[in-house]
Design a protein that fits this description.
The structure is a single chain. This protein is mainly β and 179 residues long. It has helices spanning 70-75, 85-90; strands at 8-11, 17-18, 31-34, 40-41, 54-57, 77-81, 99-103, 120-124, 127-131, 135-141, 146-152, 156-160, 165-170, 173-178.
C-alpha cells in the first residue's frame, strides 16, 4: 500500500484475512482495529508500520501470521477480548508485544465497557509519557529497583529518564519500555 498519510484503519468483521503487504509502508499508521472474523494476517501485512500505538483485535483466537516491526512490539499496545489474554501471550508474533491487555468489545467503535480507556504508555526522546491515567506511576529498572514514583494529575504524566530499559507500573498494568 505504501501510504504515508493513513493514521487509522478499522478492518470490519466480515473479512477473514488481511492480505499480503496490505498496509506495508504505512509509516503514519497509529491505530488499527482488526475485526472478529480475521483469522490470518498476510505476510508483511504491517511491515514498515513503525508508528503503531494501539492495536485492537476483536477475535478471541489470535490471528496467525502476525509479524510486526520491532518498534511496534516495544511501543504499541495490543488490546484483546476479555478471556483471551493467555492465548495471545502464547501465540507466535503476538507474544512479542510488550503490552497486551484485555478489553470488553462493545461494538461501538473502540469504546471500552466498564469505564475509562486503559492507560497509554509511550516512550521516546528521553521521556516516558503515560496518558489516560490518574494516581501513581512507578518506574523500576530491569533489576526491580525503584527509580521514580510520580502522581499523575490531569490524566497525563511525563517522566524524563536517561537511555535504558525500564518497567513502568500504572495501577495493575505493567509494561517494559526502552529509551
Amino acid at each position: 500500500m505504501r501510504c504515508s498519510a493513513l493514521e487509522s484503519v478499522n478492518i470490519g468483521n466480515s473479512f477473514p484475512q488481511i492480505g499480503r503487504s496490505a498496509f506495508e509502508g504505512c509509516t503514519a499508521l497509529k491505530d488499527v482495529v482488526i475485526g472478529s472474523s480475521v483469522s490470518k494476517l498476510g505476510q508483511d501485512a504491517f511491515s514498515g508500520c513503525t508508528a503503531l500505538v494501539n492495536i485492537y483485535v476483536r477475535n478471541s483466537v489470535p490471528p496467525t501470521g502476525a509479524e510486526f516491526e520491532n518498534l511496534a512490539y516495544m511501543n504499541a499496545s495490543v488490546y484483546v477480548p476479555q478471556g483471551s489474554l493467555s492465548s495471545y501471550q502464547a501465540a507466535n508474533g503476538w507474544k512479542n508485544f510488550w503490552s497486551i491487555s484485555e478489553f470488553v468489545p462493545s461494538g461501538i467503535g473502540n469504546a471500552v465497557l466498564g469505564g475509562q480507556a486503559p492507560p497509554v504508555i509511550k516512550a521516546g526522546d528521553g521521556c516516558v509519557t503515560v496518558e489516560n491515567t490518574t494516581g501513581n506511576v512507578v518506574v523500576y529498572d530491569m533489576g526491580g529497583a525503584l527509580i521514580e514514583s510520580v502522581n499523575a494529575v490531569g490524566g497525563r504524566v511525563d517522566i524524563v529518564l536517561p537511555a535504558g530499559l525500564y518497567i513502568i507500573k500504572v495501577g495493575d498494568r505493567v509494561e517494559k519500555v526502552t529509551l
